[in-house]
Amino acid sequence: MTPLLDPLRMAMMNSAVVLVSGGLDSATTLAIARSQGLDVYALSIDYGQRHRQELESAHRVAEALGAISHTIIAVDLRAVGGSALTAAIDVPTDRAYDAIGEGIPITYVPARNTVLLGLALGYAEVVEAFDIFIGANAIDYSGYPDCRPEFLAAFERLANLATKAAVERRGIFRIHAPLLQMSKAEIIREGIRLGVDYGLTLSCYDPDGQGRACGRCDSCRLRLKGFAEAGENDPAVYRGE
């Protein structure tokens, strides 16, 4: 029988680590975690992505939504390559919505969510937070294998086998993906309800030097479609505006 956690441990379990990329989905995920009364440690990963402005957006979002702290960890996935987000490969533009969800796109970064969740798990163990939130979505990004519920469930099992905190029964790690089965419009409506300022976010795969979104990559197109379906105006700044 697993021993009961003492009151100090129970208090610590009111904390969570939230992966924050600076985009729409992770901002909404952070807001959801905060709405559940959790003290949030925001974590962003500088993995060598070409859209580096997202890290600045992540900091703004973390601050605006009341995170305890915002930590950035650097790991260079450019050394791995194989993605339009980390290598000299053109980002696809103007793709039809039906095509976006077909196959695994070139914007997939090999093993990215495995790496990101691994770093979040290590950080969570150090700050003694047993809840880890990620803004994965299996509807709009069905082509990404590391956004599937099967992957997240498998990682949660791994987390509770691979950590000192879990083996010593100090807590049980949980991977939360509250947006997993939500459409982009549903995500936006929920974020607005929770007070997210989407003007602070950057979703574009290929923004310009001023941080303006291209409006043509898959991420921009899905974002714009989501705002239109939600009946809301997108406050992001796009090129040509």
Characteristics of this structure?
single chain; 241 residues; alpha/beta; Rossmann fold; five-stranded parallel beta sheet; 9 helices; globular
Tell me what the structure shows:
By secondary structure, the chain is α/β, with parallel strands linked by helices. It has a single domain, classed as Rossmann fold. Helices cover 38% and strands 10% of the residues. The chain has 9 helices and 5 strands; from the N terminus they run αβαβαβααβααβαα. The protein has a 5-stranded parallel sheet with strand order 3-2-1-4-5, sandwiched between helices. Helix 3 (53-64) links the parallel strand 2 and strand 3. The chain is globular and about 55 Å long.
Provide the CATH architecture: 3-Layer(aba) Sandwich
Taking Cα atoms only, what radius of gyration do you get, to the nearest Å? 18 Å
By CATH, the topology is: Rossmann fold
Number of strands: 5
Mean pLDDT comes to: 91
Poorly predicted runs of 5 or more residues? 1-11
Q: Please identify the top-level CATH class.
A: Alpha Beta
Name the CATH homologous superfamily: HUPs
Major β-sheet strand ordering: 3-2-1-4-5
Strand percent estimate: 5-15%
Give a quick account of the main beta sheet: strands, pairing sense, barrel closure: 5 strands, parallel
- Our measurement of the CA-to-CA distance between the termini, rounded to an integer number of angstroms, reads 62 Å
User: Structural class per helix/strand content?
Assistant: alpha/beta
